[in-house]
Amino acid sequence: MTAQRDRIHQYVAGHPGVHFNKLARELDLATGQLQYHLKKLRRTDDVVAESLYGRTHYYTPEYDDWERGAVAVLHRETARDVLLYLIEAGPSAPAPVASDLDIARSTLEWHLDHLIEQNLVEKRRDDRGHVTLALSRPVETAELLRLIEPTVPERLVDRFTRLVDNLVGE
């Protein structure tokens, strides 16, 4: 492996789920140069790419399909907040989750769609049709939460979304 590829591989290993633009920015690489090296790393199975929710995320091969999808979602601050809420409070109805996190119900549902799609959260309905949100894989989810911290731009996007939701809701 060349020095540049080794550098890229090391960064991906230390930052699972990193997306292309951040990788280029952090390593100060030209787009074409990074594309070339990632192609070589993918060809030798040193790096795995997963396209989810409008971004391509990069991982080392030890992450399975579930972990890759989960990590991609965990880079979103609001999704993380929902998971942390469910870890602390246990299974909960959607209304108190949205209220306690100070987000619009539509924002919660948007994030829930991704959390459910990635098998992090499930919606359970009782015999009266009331929904309860619960973690699908609590132990594995807690382990991944310790690995992933959203970046400043990811946090800013989530916070801007919350601000707009609050302004629209008033």
Can you give a write-up of this model?
The chain has 170 residues and is of the alpha+beta class. The protein folds into two domains: 3-63, Arc Repressor Mutant, subunit A; 73-169, Arc Repressor Mutant, subunit A (Orthogonal Bundle). 62% of the residues lie in helices and 13% in strands. It is built from nine helices and five strands; from the N terminus they run αβααββααααββαα. It has a three-stranded antiparallel sheet with strand order 1-3-2. A hairpin with a 2-residue loop joins strand 2 and strand 3 (55-59). Helix 1 crosses helix 3 (31-43) and helix 5 (77-89) packs across helix 8. The longest helix has 18 residues, at 152-169. The protein starts with a helix and ends with a helix. The model has no long low-confidence stretch (mean pLDDT 88). Pfam families: HTH_20 (PF12840), HTH_HVO_0163_N (PF24266). It comes from Haloplanus aerogenes. InterPro entries: HTH_HVO_0163_N (IPR056504), WH-like_DNA-bd_sf (IPR036388), WH_DNA-bd_sf (IPR036390). This is ArsR family transcriptional regulator. Residues 3-71 form the HVO-0163 N-terminal HTH domain.
